[in-house]
Design a protein that fits this description.
Largest sheet: 7 strands, mixed
CATH architecture of the largest domain: 2-Layer Sandwich
Radius of gyration: 19 Å
Strand content: 15-25%
Structural class: alpha+beta
CATH class of the largest domain: Alpha Beta
Shape: globular
Number of strands: 9
């Protein structure tokens, strides 16, 4: 019988996903469409998601494409977001609005497109639109990648993502990443099963009333991305998981 650490490592080996690269032939048409939409206002398209953070798991977005436009681009970031969504649909690409992204499916890949307008106030920052909150905020997506990579908690984050998806929980990935980092700030043991249980206990006991802020801009309240009922579902599911005696009933 596998011990708990090996059980989780086998799950991770099965469900970890290979990162997508910009040269991948499956996203080339989409890139052409994005360049056409951005025109002279476009400054950069780059990958900023789980692949770059080394936290990719199967069944979640295969890649996050960040589309940067110049600070003098006409209109608010909300208007720019809507313009991009409309242009994709004009190009017969079906879209779905996510928390701060536009989700599309291309050649079997699930892709999240995140438009950002270069901030006029902060160097290296972009203004993003958060559709579910109907708000905007300045943030630094490159620092988000660095924060997760430097945490050295990729396995714990991937395990928590798999648990989230097993239980069909609404839990945005960046919010989840920050929670795992906070939960293990002074509790990491190096044993993945013990660390994951610390995350579950944190979700059970401390998550509901914990405000979580964007580490690059405290005015951006990441924990407001989901509502009270969705947070309660996360906490209750964590409580239930803590009571199961067998790993097969906690993670699969």
């Amino acid at each position: 019988m596998l011990d708990s650490n090996n059980y989780i490592r086998n799950i991770l080996a099965e469900k970890s996903a290979r990162p997508i690269e910009m040269q991948d032939h499956r996203i080339q048409y989409l890139l052409q469409v994005l360049y056409e939409w951005g025109g002279l206002n476009l400054t950069e398209i780059k990958l900023i998601g789980a692949g770059e953070k080394r936290t990719s798991v199967k069944g979640v977005s295969d890649a996050d494409l960040f589309v940067s436009v110049d600070s003098d681009t006409e209109g608010s970031i909300k208007t720019i977001f809507a313009s991009l969504n409309s242009f994709l649909r004009y190009k017969r690409i079906e879209t779905k609005i996510q928390f701060n992204s536009i989700r599309v499916v291309q050649n079997g890949l699930l892709l999240d497109i995140i438009p950002g307008k270069i901030s006029t106030e902060y160097q290296f920052y972009h203004t993003l639109y958060f559709a579910r909150r109907d708000t905007q905020a300045d943030t630094n997506v490159d620092l988000h990648v660095n924060i997760v990579r430097e945490s050295k908690l990729q396995n714990e984050i991937k395990t928590t993502k798999i648990w989230r998806d097993n239980n069909n929980l609404v839990f945005p990935s960046f919010y989840l990443e920050l929670i795992v980092i906070e939960a293990l700030r002074h509790r990491r043991t190096g044993h993945i099963s013990d660390d994951f249980f610390s995350v579950l206990r944190f979700l059970k006991d401390e998550f509901l009333n914990r405000a979580v802020f964007d580490p690059t801009n405290a005015m951006n309240i990441v924990s407001s991305d989901i509502n009270s009922a969705e947070k309660m579902a996360i906490a209750q599911t964590a409580a239930n998981s803590c009571q199961h005696p067998y790993w097969e009933d906690i993670l699969w």
